[in-house]
Write a structure and sequence with these properties.
By secondary structure, the chain is an alpha+beta fold. Helices cover about 35% and strands about 35% of the residues. The chain is built from eight helices and 25 strands. The protein has helices at about 20-30, 45-55, 115-125, 175-180, 180-185, 245-255, 300-310, 345-415; strands at about 5-10, 10-15, 15-20, 35-40, 40-45, 60-65, 70-75, 80-85, 95-100, 140-145, 145-155, 155-165, 170-175, 190-195, 205-210, 215-220, 240-245, 265-270, 275, 285-290, 290, 295-300, 315-320, 325-330, 335. The strands form four sheets. Strands 13-10-11-12-25-24-23-17-21 form a nine-stranded antiparallel β-sheet. It has a seven-stranded mixed β-sheet with strand order 5-4-9-1-16-15-14. A five-stranded antiparallel β-sheet has the order 2-3-6-7-8. Helix 1 runs antiparallel to helix 2 (about 45-55) and helix 3 (about 115-125) runs antiparallel to helix 5 (about 180-185). The longest helix is centred in the C-terminal third of the chain and has 73 residues, at about 345-415.
């Protein structure tokens, strides 16, 4: 997968170079995610170039002229020269941003910069970290039916965010390629999302996120994301409304008491109270909450903390039982978390399995009995049909003999 950045700045062309406002150029460079910048074929380090431009004084206008393997910089009475490969080293990532200057640059926004930034921030924590599952290291971006859907999963948690956006397309974008995009979007005023055809590929597609200064483009990752919809539960018995800040503080206090790296927290919902405790009963916190129904479940504290940090504000918690996935939802966005099984939850799961098998066997038995009754009924009807047929044949035979007898009597009378 490839990420391509393009810096679009309003200014004037001057030969092979350009003239722009210093503040605009420095601001644009601060939003670039790439480590290197290409200006007129001269490649330099982005961070060093940004710092250099910000220190210039004497004028609000900067003139940059490519000159062979260097850049000539003019700002007021200052004249400087930036050589190719300045502020770079071998350890620096080979990510590149091209700078383009035009008299006017505008975009037609189709999505809010803040909501897109929040969506990316919410799904990134739930991607997989293991290299043996490359597809789960990606964010699945789907655009259809007026919705832009971002989905991520790591095998134990799953996050889905839905935004209103009139585009069509689908791509897998690597987690590392999206890092920093949310911060850059929060600085932008306008944003547009689109799917474009990739140059040089017959069926290639590129995801483009464009702001007033930066144009990001990604080619997709090979692979197929799992069918995540069937993993999201839809039937629940227990509900609670949580304040994420208050709940996060409570979980942090319980984790501090645990010596286990993967500590667990027991959640219990009952009569307007959410009770959280350590499995060994070393700590307990009770929070007032809007609840419906009763239930309890054990969850990995690390997963719960990720959910609470990703979803700020009020959060709805839905639970089916102690061994099924739990759902956290907020404004249509959903996070699914798998529970940690205990001896009690395993027993409940086994009992539910047995009841399910018994119900299935009963239904099969009833179906078999209904089939047998149907067969008996059919056999009876066939027997009745046979009997009716025999009776009909006998009647017809009797009727057929009557003319014969009458004919014999006439013959005998004639002879006499």
């Amino acid at each position: 997968m490839t990420k391509i950045e393009q810096l679009n700045i309003e200014g004037k062309r001057s030969g092979k170079g350009f003239v722009v406002h210093k503040a605009m150029l420095v601001n644009a460079l601060s939003r670039v995610l790439a480590e290197r910048v290409n200006i007129g074929g001269v490649e330099v380090g982005r961070s060093g170039l940004q710092k250099y431009f910000s220190t210039l004084s004497g004028s609000n206008i900067i003139k940059v002229l490519p000159d062979g393997q260097c850049l000539k910089v003019l700002c007021g009475t200052h004249t400087g020269r930036v050589n190719a490969s300045d502020w770079t080293d071998d350890k620096m990532a080979r990510t590149m941003c091209e700078v383009r200057v035009s008299p006017h640059h505008s975009i037609q926004p189709n999505i809010g910069t803040g909501e897109l930034a929040d969506a990316i921030s919410q799904v990134l924590p739930f991607t997989a970290s293991e290299d043996n599952r490359p597809v789960l290291q990606c964010v699945n971006i789907i655009a259809a039916d007026g919705k832009l859907i971002l989905v991520s999963a790591d095998g134990f948690t799953l996050s889905e965010v839905r935004l209103d956006c009139e585009v069509e397309g689908q791509l897998l974008i690597g987690r590392d390629e999206l890092k920093g995009v949310a911060a850059a979007l929060r600085k932008a005023k306008r944003a547009r999302v689109s799917f474009e055809k990739s140059e040089g590929e017959l069926d290639g597609t590129v995801l483009v996120i464009e702001t007033e200064l930066i144009r990001y483009a990604w080619t997709g990752h090979a692979g197929e994301f799992p069918d995540y919809q069937k993993l999201i539960p839809s039937e629940f018995n227990t509900f609670a409304s949580l304040d994420t800040i208050e709940t996060l503080q409570a979980v942090a206090s319980l984790v501090a008491l645990s010596s286990d790296k993967d500590s667990a927290v027991d959640l219990k919902v009952n009569d307007g109270v959410l009770t959280m405790s350590n499995p060994d009963d070393r700590g307990q916190v009770q929070l007032t909450a809007d609840t419906l129904g009763q239930g309890q479940v054990r969850v990995n504290a690390g997963y719960l903390i990720k959910v609470l940090k990703a979803c700020r504000g009020m959060l709805d918690f839905s639970l089916t039982n102690s061994y099924s996935p739990m759902l956290f939802s907020q404004n249509g966005n959903r996070v699914v978390v798998m529970p940690m099984l205990t001896a009690q939850s395993k027993a409940e799961q086994g009992k539910a399995t047995e009841q399910g098998e018994a119900t299935e066997a009963t239904e099969q038995g009833e179906a078999t009995e209904a089939t047998e009754q149907g067969e008996d009924t059919e056999a009876t009807e066939q027997g009745e049909d046979t009997e009716d047929t025999e009776d009909t044949e006998a009647t017809e035979a009797t009727e057929a003999t009557k003319p014969v007898k009458a004919s014999r009597k006439r013959k005998q009378a004639a002879t006499a």
